[in-house]
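Just wondering, can you check both lines?
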Amino acid sequence: MKHILLFVLFTLFGFSASAQFLNTAGDIDHERLNFGFLLGIDRASFTVVKQRDFSQPGSNPYTADTLQAIKPMGNMGFSLGLLANVKLDRHFDLRFTPKFSFVDRQLEYQYNKASDNKILLKQVESTFLELPLLLKFKSDRMNDVRLYVVGGVKFVTDIRSKKKKANDEVYNPDDDRKLVKINNSFVALEAGLGADIYLEYFKFSPELKLSHSINNVMKTGDDNIITHPLAGLFAEALHFTMYFE
């Protein structure tokens, strides 16, 4: 999926660079403050930090089987939101891009058990409100396109209903989704690259970006067959976002 997104992004770069310098996108470069909206495709996963003895026989008191591997399984989701862009100078912009993100993440546990050598843990689906504050560095305009890099920090909070969160807190040994609990809020770093493509009445900006939580997002205090081998989980995601300004 990552290679497909890269192909689409650089194809758009090449197409835009061949255009004539005709479009002003509604004279957007002359505005100190402008607004827009965004649509995104996200691939969410975890960075897994395992206990040192996770694969040693007898290290997990909740099972007699020996754990061989823990693998994060990336899942696709989508996001939508708004954009506020402040022009600082010729090459720098400050961007605030609040959005709703709909994702879930999975972990796969592989045991040496002959009859059932895999346990698939599906994390509860999440609905996040993400509040990124980003600094954008953009190149000089080449015909109808500018390339740019962007980076910053974002605050992420789970906005699922209180009832659904309460249901997820109830321990149920028959529901693997409830054996790992994630913090309701966390902070992450973001960095990426993109292109501003000037059209007649608006500016279109495809962007590819990575995000990674600063701290461990796994809730502490719950010890069970799934969490015992884990030292921590860090939320990560690959974002392909389309901005319309």
Remarks:
- The first helix runs from residue 2 to 17.
- The domain at 2-244 is CATH 2.40.160.20 (Porin).
- Residues 15-19 have pLDDT under 50 and may be disordered.
- DSSP finds two helices and twelve strands in the chain.
